[in-house]
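The data are quoted verbatim for completeness:
=====
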Amino acid sequence: MGFLRSAATTTTAAAAALAALTFTSLSPPSSSLPSLSLPKSLKFQSFSINKPFDHLGHSKNLTKPPSALHMDAPLSDYKPSSPQNGVLLPDLLTEFMVDMKCDGCVNAVKNKLNTLTGVKNVEVDLSNQVVRVLGSSPVKTMSEALEQTGRKARLIGQGVPEDFLVSAAVSEFKGPNIYGVVRLAQVNMELARVEANFSGLPTGKHGWSINEYGDLTRGAASTGRVFNPTTEEKPLGDLGTLEADEDGKAFFSGTKDNLRVSDLIGRSIAVYATEDKSDLGLSAAVIARSAGVGENYKKLCTCDGTTIWEASDADFVTSKV
């Protein structure tokens, strides 16, 4: 899609018309789609997002866009880089809000992130205190690296800066026994990246899955069957196995073919006591839309007005996993 926008400025009028016609035929009706809100000034070497309206006619409403960050953006034909859990992960753009005050802070953050396996490029916007990382390194690894520099850091967006209507989602397990965060990010229309961190699990192997419903009235038992919009024998929503260590912690980072994040909003992720999911389930959490790249540059929490990195660790589920 980004290619069609850039090609229109360099081809003949007839070619541009043909590209526009092709794009229109592939796009879903705008009446059924939610509006997007992307910053106007984000520019990439491969393409730029600088128009006041997107291809669906939705206006952009960011009042104070961040200054432009320049880097090569991953395209839909992704190139896997470093292996995690035996799986080659696709590259994504990940954005953090980091408490930085000077060029020394910028250098410290860049130097630390560039030591991580899978990190290809790091760009920092000091004026907006935004750090953008291109690569395959898991969010948990990058978050820990940033905090090792002595600076507070919070994830604010992840995905590929293309025209996905929903590029990222999150499911938060908030206790009282099991805590965890599951993040899903759309890489292209045929692939999603899945990352999860859990604590409080019984030691051993646990089945986990995306289930049909977000009904948590009876915990995992009321979330329905494993999500499966296909006719395949193995449900699409089957996420395999989590293995908790002696401390009850489990970490997962991998990919899922044919999974579309936009189809998952309002459903749930459930974790089971057994690997075969034969029990009623240990815990479940609803899947909610999360900010994609360039969609969340607020510095104040809307719930209490607290500056993001001045909130206590107890305010963030990730502090418990």
